[in-house]
């Protein structure tokens, strides 16, 4: 067994937290030979529920769980952590304007960014799941001036996995037969699931499906999958979101497979004409814990329009939270 690493999870008593913690503790994220110490953050009223979750974690007697810290103090939660999964966020309430939502989340993610800056390991890897995830990641990043901006990422992996699943079902293949799917942009309904470079069993995906299915069925289904699950289940997706968060972190830690890529929400460097700085879903390869944007992909007019629309939404979200950035 290796020396334990510390993994922080916020919103740990929530429904994604409940689906996430047991899998991290079981070794699904970092491997069966990597013990973890979980640092669980909750708001004060949720501490009793969190205590119940900690009791259950202990009762699993996981070989890879080396300790649990449960707290409502962000400075304790992020002390010396190697990984941070920021799940807890303020959901949009009835009649809540977008501006109020961004403001409420600013009050969560600005102090969390500062606490990561002050207390986390210098190479901490941060994933934001709580919505609006891309802009929450930007707020945290902009309050952590001593960390590399590239350490802050947002989750578009659930959308990526949803795209794999839809395409596999349509072509009668397994998700493992598919390569090079991309989710560009925001984790919102403006995201652009792109199949132009994807292959199924080595064949171009778009040669196996018709354009009408791609435009009118596949893209909206992936974009609106979250709402469809709420309608069917009466509750938002949680296990699949947790699973995607584990995939995101495992890929970041362990790398991408040869000949494939994944989608990650990362700070734009201007690649593909996207506004520098916004946290934008890109195709990336990962090696030795470092991600690189896949370069040189041909972008046609259809893709360009959709990539620009989701970039525009992210620039507008950024304009609404700039006052929350540390000077
Ligand atoms: P969930 O665990 O279901 O969701 C948490 C966040 O993940 C929400 O912002 C949600 O966004 C987002 N999310 C991202 N992708 C998905 C997806 N595919 N499906 C569903 N959600 C997704 O929420 P709960 O209300 O059950 O739990 C939240 C917990 O966070 C509570 O226990 C609360 O006390 C805690 N919290 C902790 C904070 C902290 O630690 N400082 C701060 C705020 C809350 P969306 O709302 O759009 O569904």
TL;DR?
The chain is α/β, with parallel strands linked by helices.
Description:
β13 and β14 (290-293) form a beta hairpin. The chain is built from ten helices and 14 strands. By secondary structure, the protein is α/β, with parallel strands linked by helices. The longest helix has 22 residues, at 98-119. It starts with a strand and ends in a 6-residue tail after the last helix. The protein has helices at residues 15-25, 47-59, 74-77, 98-119, 133-141, 157-171, 211-223, 225-233, 239-254, 301-321, and strands at 5-10, 36-41, 65-71, 83-86, 125-128, 152-154, 178-179, 182-184, 192-194, 199-200, 203-204, 262-267, 279-287, 290-293. The chain has a six-stranded parallel β-sheet. A three-stranded antiparallel β-sheet has the order 7-10-11. It binds NADPH dihydro-nicotinamide-adenine-dinucleotide phosphate.
Question: Distance between the terminal alpha carbons, to the nearest Å?
Answer: 43 Å
Hetero compounds: NADPH dihydro-nicotinamide-adenine-dinucleotide phosphate
Number of helices: 10
In total, the number of strands is 14
Q: Structural class from helices and strands?
A: alpha/beta
Enumerate the spans where pLDDT stays under 50 for 5 or more consecutive residues: none
List the strand order in the largest sheet: 3-2-1-4-5-6
Roughly what percent helix?
40-55%
What letter string, H or E per element, gives the SSE order? EHEHEHEHEHEHEEEEEHHHEEEH
Task: Report the average pLDDT across residues.
Answer: 97
Q: Oligomeric form of this entry?
A: single chain
Query: What overall geometry do the principal axes of the alpha carbons give?
Result: globular
